[in-house]
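Lecture notes, part 5. Sequence design as translation. It can be helpful to think of inverse folding as translation between two languages: the language of shapes and the language of residues. The source text, in structure tokens, appears below.
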């Protein structure tokens, strides 16, 4: 009999074993959480609410329905965020997903006043099928999913461009003296509904910013005015993507791909089987008027100042409607993964959030 229980550290080994189970495809990947699962949960949600599905003391499912601060209707509020859903392959054809969704509907009692945000990637066919079927019937035991955005996650390497090193826009790393300006810029540009809220003064003190330093943030100035912010995050001590194996096709072409495309055309490097994919995640992207050229300057400076090794790529998630997505239309050396953002409540209808706008989401916190 499967039980749904609150998170307890006694189950850490079982949780990590579940996350280490590979996901099949051309690249067989495992999305691991070493050395501690809960450290990652505290990055995704400021107030984690993690539950486990346990069958005879084996962890066969995990999900998080915690909360994090976002900007809604111009106010900073705690918004539910549904994430980290994992189900053991041996249980995916049963009723465990339906049980989880019904359980969430019972636990999250205020979804009509404050809907939850969740992200579903396009290759999560079972979840997408469930969402599509749910929209066709009434009933109160299962919440409704309302699509609000199509997101692209890009893995890429930025080729440094001398033309972007001009005298008009200057980019440097942040210091403590910049916190006030950073908070001011956020209040001026972070006005879209469900925009993440960043408390830059808590960096280095709050587990929500685990592993971050102020110097991981890059600031773009025109004269003395702050025009843009972009953070970088090395999450290798918190969340890991391990390449377990390659398909026969990729295994054959990998040496040629790395020698030609990765070496000369800056495509992402494919590591040996059993190795981690090395990425630096971009986040906290705050730019006046979402000006693509400011973003290009930030990316160019990140590539220049951080001196990333050749086997390390950048990772970024952008709404397709966001003006910043134009930057990636000219980046040909990228790998793209599509996903959908949903708001979750108990009604067939939902008020029109994000009218004429776009969703800001940090890849590191998906």
């Amino acid at each position: 009999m499967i039980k749904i229980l609150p998170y307890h550290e006694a189950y850490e080994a079982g949780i990590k074993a579940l996350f280490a189970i590979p996901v099949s495809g051309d690249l067989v990947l495992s999305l691991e959480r070493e050395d501690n699962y809960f450290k990652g949960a505290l990055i995704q949600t400021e107030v984690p609410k993690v539950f486990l599905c346990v069958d005879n003391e084996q962890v066969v499912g995990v999900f998080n329905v915690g909360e994090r601060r976002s900007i809604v209707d111009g106010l900073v509020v705690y918004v539910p965020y549904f994430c980290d859903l994992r189900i053991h392959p041996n249980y995916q054809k049963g009723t465990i997903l339906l049980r989880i969704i019904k359980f969430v509907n019972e636990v999250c009692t205020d979804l009509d006043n404050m809907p939850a945000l969740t992200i579903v990637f396009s290759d999560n066919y079972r979840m997408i099928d469930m969402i599509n079927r749910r929209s066709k019937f009434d009933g109160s035991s299962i919440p409704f999913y309302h699509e609000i955005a199509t997101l692209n996650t890009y893995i890429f390497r930025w080729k440094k461009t001398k033309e972007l090193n001009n005298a008009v826009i200057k980019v440097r790393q942040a210091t403590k003296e910049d916190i006030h300006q950073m908070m001011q810029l956020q209040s001026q540009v972070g006005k879209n509904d469900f925009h993440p809220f960043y408390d830059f003064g808590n960096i280095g003190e709050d587990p929500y910013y685990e592993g971050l330093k102020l110097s991981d943030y890059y600031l773009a100035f025109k004269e003395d005015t702050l025009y843009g912010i972009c953070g970088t995050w090395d999450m290798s001590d918190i969340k890991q993507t391990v390449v377990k194996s390659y398909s026969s096709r990729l295994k054959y072409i990998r040496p040629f791909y790395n020698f030609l495309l990765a070496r000369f055309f800056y495509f992402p490097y494919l590591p040996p089987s059993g190795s981690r994919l090395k990425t630096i995640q971009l986040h906290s992207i705050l730019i006046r008027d979402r000006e693509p050229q400011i973003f290009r300057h930030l990316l160019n400076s990140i590539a220049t100042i951080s001196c990333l090794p050749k086997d390390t790529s950048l990772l970024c998630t952008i709404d397709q409607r966001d003006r910043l997505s134009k930057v990636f239309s000219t980046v040909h050396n990228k790998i793209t993964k599509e996903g959908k953002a949903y708001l979750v409540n108990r009604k067939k209808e939902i008020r029109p959030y994000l009218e004429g706008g776009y969703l800001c989401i940090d890849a590191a916190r998906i």
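The translated text above is only one of many valid answers, since several sequences can fold into similar shapes. The first helix runs from residue 12 to 19.
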